[in-house]
Amino acid sequence: MKKITKKIITIMALTLVTPLVLTACGQSGQSGQSLTGEIKIDGSSTVFPITEAVAEEFTAQNPDIKIPVGVSGTGGGFKKFAIGETDISDASRPIKDEEAAMAKENGIDFTKYTVAYDGITMVVNKENTWVKNLTTEELKMIWAPDSKVTTWKDIRPEWPNDEIKFYAPGTDSGTFDYFTEEINGKSGAIRHDFTGSEDDNVLVQGIAGDKNAIGFFGFAYYEENTNKLNLVAVNDVKPSLDTIKDGSYAPLSRPLFIYVNNKSLDKTEVHAFVKFYIENAKDLVKEVGYIPLPDKMYTDQLNLLK
Questions:
Q1: Do residues 123 and 225 both lie within one domain?
Q2: pLDDT tens-digit series, residues 88-115
Q3: What is the distance between the alpha carbons of residues 192 and 46, in angstroms, rounded to a whole number?
Q4: Among 113, 117, 52, which Cα is nearest to 306's?
Q5: Among 152, 154, 262, 302, which residue's CB has the most CB atoms within a 10 Å radius?
Q6: Quick one: pLDDT at residue 20?
Q7: Domain-located, residue 277
Q8: Domain residue limits at 191
Q9: Does any domain span residue 89?
Q10: Is residue 1 situated within a structural domain?
Q11: Model pTM greater than 0.90?
Q12: CATH number at residue 283
């Protein structure tokens, strides 16, 4: 499990005393008593900061609840979810047909809840002063399975003739799937000489430690590491709360989800947690660096839960 950043811990401490949370805490149990049990969650490293923040708030009001949040990646999370190992699966892409089929074979019915928006963010080392913007065509040239790009000069002739080090989410990551589909036209289609990890903090450390590194991951991880990394615009548009929300940061803006085992919702603690998640997502999503949905969409998610 990833460690929450100092910023997120600070945020959690502050939000524990907000009226929103004080109101929500009364919703833990109908009798007002603290809930018990365990809620098992795994999946996307991108959605992890949101779910971990919600879990911190929820367990603060229900200290007898255990909520381990794993980060196996979206694909890894769905593998566990489809065989009933988890109650909730964090996902940075929709479930694939074969994953849904596996769940059905195991008698698992589920519901998808959209919780936030994100923009896949291209970053380079802080000492990289030449890469300010990349086009979609250049991204494909860099990351395609048959890419001939090995140095910066291979991308633009005026750039240095230094060898590039490539970093990307691991193959079980929904970010990996989404990026390869949008840029290379097929899920999983990518050059083979990259360093991959489902842990985005590993990618941050690798890129921050190599002047000639380039990589991508969710927007929140850039927001947490602006002192270590330089942001790269795509098609002259930088990812931000506004450009991701209005869709102008294209084609790398996307929704984020949680998938919930419907049988698990029969458990009071799981139902209460999902309700708490949706009711508090708008504020917590912003606080951990993502973009909240419009109010109506959260209302729709609550109606779906009901």
A1: yes
A2: 999 999 999 999 999 999 999 999 999 9
A3: 22
A4: 113
A5: 152
A6: 37
A7: yes
A8: 118-253
A9: yes
A10: no
A11: no
A12: 3.40.190.10
Q: Does residue 128 surpass a pLDDT of 90? A: yes
Q: DSSP states of 197-220 as a string? A: ES-HHHHHHHHHT-TTEEEEEEHH
Token pair listed for 217: 């991951």
Whether residue 239 lies inside any domain: the answer is yes
Give CA–CA dist 269/82, Å, rounded: 21
User: Where does the pLDDT of residue 66 fall: very low under 50, low under 70, confident under 90, or very high at 90 and above?
Assistant: very high
Q: What is the pLDDT of residues 271-299, one digit of tens each?
A: 999 999 999 999 999 999 899 999 999 99
Beta strand spans in the chain (E): 37-38, 41-43, 65-66, 88-91, 110-125, 133-134, 165-169, 195-197, 213-218, 229-234, 253-261
Which stretch of DSSP H or E encloses residue 288?
A: none
Could you tell me the two tokens for 248? 């102008």
Which residues are paired to 89 by β-bridges? 42, 259
**CA–CA gap between residue 285 and residue 51 (Å, rounded):** 9
* Cα dihedral across residues 211, 217, 219, 221: positive or negative: negative
d(CA 292, CA 51): 13
Q: 42, 90 in Cβ contact below 8 A?
A: yes
Instruction: List the beta bridge partners of residue 42.
Output: 89
Q: Are strands 253-261 and 88-91 parallel, antiparallel or unpaired?
A: antiparallel
- Written as one letter, the residue type at 86 is T
Check whether residue 72 and residue 13 sit in a common domain.
yes
Encoded tokens for 122: 């291209």
Say how many Å lie between the first and final Cα of the chain, rounded: 31
Same domain assignment for residues 245 and 290: no
Q: Do the bridges between strand 110-125 and strand 229-234 make them parallel or antiparallel, or are there none, so unpaired?
A: antiparallel
Amino acid code (one letter) for 73: G
Number of domains in the chain: 2
Q: How many CB atoms lie within 10 A of CB 300?
A: 15
